[in-house]
Design brief:
Elements: E1 7-13, E2 17-24, E3 33-37, H1 51-57, E4 65-70, E5 73-74, E6 81-85, E7 90-93, H2 101-108, E8 112-115, E9 127-131, E10 142-144
Parallel strand pairs: 3-4, 7-8
Antiparallel strand pairs: 1-2, 4-5, 6-7, 6-9, 9-10
């Protein structure tokens, strides 16, 4: 059944592997982002229980996704690391909640750079994009910076 289409592999584990599953991947249409502040969130590791993130996501209003702000710095969206384009280069915050694999790869390749980004810095950028293991710079959703509330 996984021979046609795009799938992601999800491995749930603690001390041992508890479950492995293949889930059909569908890209979400994201055209707007809502800044949501939370200074308590800690998401250094992926967890099966994403209830806390889902609670933050529920505060998005009429936007498609959220940008989490922690201690005054932009971190990530619900399911992706964020990058910002200044007209010549893509930048990613130096304060991610989760250091994603795509983000690490793009940093290693020199395709993106890292710096501190706060909500007041957004006026320096023209576009925002969301990257994760399934979305690189060419396939990521991109929106004008004015689409961030």
């Amino acid at each position: 059944e996984c021979r046609t289409g795009l799938f992601r592999c999800r491995v749930i584990y603690s001390r041992t592997i508890e479950k492995t599953e293949f889930l059909q991947h569908e890209y979400r249409q994201i055209q707007s982002l809502k800044l949501v502040e939370d200074n308590k969130i800690d998401y250094r590791f992926k967890f099966a229980n994403r209830q806390y993130l889902e609670e933050l996501f529920s505060r998005r209003g009429d936007c498609d996704d959220i940008l989490i702000v922690k201690n005054g710095c932009i971190t990530d969206s619900l399911t992706a690391n964020v990058v910002f384009y200044d007209g010549s280069r893509w930048w990613t915050p130096d304060t991610p909640l989760l250091v994603g694999t795509q983000r690490a790869k793009l940093l290693d390749e020199g395709k993106i750079a890292m710096c501190r980004i706060t909500p007041s810095d957004l006026k320096k950028y023209k576009k925002a994009g969301l990257i994760n293991a399934m979305q690189n710079l060419e396939e990521m959703p991109v929106m004008g910076i004015e689409k961030i509330q």
